[in-house]
Amino acid sequence: MRNVLIAGLLCLAAAGAGAQDLGKKTFEQCVACHSLQAGENGVGPTLHGLLGSTAGTVEGFRFSGPMKRSGIVWDEKNLTEFLRNPQAVVPNTRMPFSGITDEAALKALVGYLATATK
Fold it and tell me: pLDDT tens across 38-51, in order?
């Protein structure tokens, strides 16, 4: 019985590590524009401190009017919807990204960002 429990825990840990790896790999398509470092804006705003923040409010970044007016407070649900289809969530945003259609990659990315942006 103990061996079954240990094997189950190892499988859960491996699945979590796999999701984290997929999230980090999926984030590679974001790094051309976004940083995880505080105060490091590029073509896109830094994602540091993302969850819990209000869209369009990163210091030193020039956001589109629609993004500033969106009133979105970033949580995992809002972030998932936005990354699935940015233009549907914030029409006329300047973010030139069509979205993530692979649900596993999307879920892994949001999980990765939940920890990596703290």
Answer: 999 999 999 999 99
Confidence of residue 117 (pLDDT cuts 50, 70, 90): very high
Separation between Cα atoms, residue 43 and residue 99, nearest integer Å: 17
> Is residue 10 over pLDDT 90?
no
What is the distance between the terminal CA atoms of the chain, rounded to a whole angstrom?
38
d(CA 117, CA 23): 13
pTM, full prediction: 0.83
Six-digit token pair at 29?
């398509």
**SS3 letters for the chain?**
CHHHHHHHHHHHHHHHHHHHHHHHHHHCCCCCCCCCCCCCCCCCCCCCCCCCCECCCCCCCCCCHHHHHCCCECCHHHHHHHHHCHHHHCCCCCCCCCCCCCHHHHHHHHHHHHHHCC
Q: Give which of 52, 69, 62 is closest to 94, Cα–Cα.
A: 62
The candidate with the shortest Cα–Cα distance to 112, out of 44, 47, 39, 38, is: 47
